[in-house]
Amino acid sequence: MTSKLDANTVALFLEDHPDFFEHHPELIADLKLTTMLGGRTVSLHERQVEILREKIRQLELKLAGLTRVAGNNDTIMSNFHEWNLQLLSADDKSALPDSLLLAMRESFGVPAASLRLWDVAADHAGQWFTESDTSEARSYADQQQAPWCGPSAGKPGVSWLDDASSMQSIALLPLRKSGCEKSFGLLVLGSPDAQRFSSELATDFLARIGETASASLQGLIA
Prior knowledge:
The chain is an alpha+beta fold. The chain folds into two domains: about 1-90, no CATH class; about 90-220, Beta-Lactamase, CATH 3.30.450. The protein has helices at about 5-15, 20-25, 45-90, 95-110, 135-145, 205-215, and strands spanning about 35, 40, 110-115, 150, 170-175, 185-190. A four-stranded antiparallel β-sheet has the order 3-6-5-4, with helices on both faces. It has a two-stranded antiparallel sheet with strand order 1-2.
C-alpha cells in the first residue's frame, strides 16, 4: 500500500525536479491557487505574476531605504567636511576650542557642547577650557578608549554644558594624541532628547569626530 505523502515531501520533490510540470503539463490545468488579494482562486500563471509583483515591491522598498541611507550619509559627510574647514581656518590657538564647539553646534546641530583640557602649555593656562576640577573627567577619559553614549546622570563633564540640568543624553569623547594611552581632554556633547545620544547609537562617526578634535587641539598641550 502506498503511503500518503505530506506537503513537505511534495515540496522537496518539486524543488529537486523543477522541470516536473514541463513533463506533465496536463496537471497545471487542475492546480487551484488562492490569490493574496481577495482570496479568489486563480491560475498558476496569475499566481506567479502576483508573487513576482510582490518581490518587485519588496525590492523597491529596499532600494528606497538604501537611497535614504545614502542621502543621510552624504549629509553627514558634507557637515563633517564643513566642520573640518572651520577648524582649519582658525588662526588663534587659544580660540580653537571656541571655534570647535561653535562649528560642532552649527554643522551637526548639537544642542550643547563643551570640553576641558589638561596638561596645557603655559601660554594657554588660565583659559576657560582649563577651569574647574577635571580629576574625575581625566580619570574617566584615561580609561575610555572609545566614545560613550547614554544617559547624562552621574557622568563627568555634564556640568560644563549650558543648561546642564535639561540634558537627558550625552556623548563623551576622550581626547588624546595619536598613539598615546593617556588623555589630554574630554569633549562632551549633550541633548535634552534622551534618544539623541542613546546607548544604542553607533559610535564610529563620533570616533572620527574625537580623532579630528584631538588632532586640532593637541597643539595646546605641553
